[in-house]
Amino acid sequence: xxxxxxxxxxxxxxxxxxxxxxxxxxxxxxxxxxxxxxxxxxxxxxxxxxxxxxxxxxxxxxxxxxxxxxxxxxxxxxxxxxxxxxxxxxxxxxxxxxxxxxxxxxxxxxxxxxxxxxxxxxxxxxxxxxxxxxxxxxxxxxxxxxxxx
Length: 149
Description:
The protein is mainly alpha-helical.
């Protein structure tokens, strides 16, 4: 199944009843292709698929999330993907954007030439002022227990 076939089929439904689709989501390169496809052909409501993709990204990076370590290439690309999800879906928590650490993420965005980087910085600073990043570890534990139990 190609990403072009996958997106409309699973944009609004779970892959849990489709073993082939669920298996495809374990492949980081296929997930990256899905993000590109979603960007190019944004379905009206892709929240279900975006949630599933983010859960796979969490699984893929579990154990590597340490706010004090430098962002690796995968985490940097994840910022772009997650920003896309936040911009187009109110169902994505802003905390997903700063898995590599708030200051590290802001620094990474400051170094980006894209116009959207400034928008992302302003967005993060608004939520920082509101206290949404004050207890990221607590948020991650709550999120994990809520969605995995």
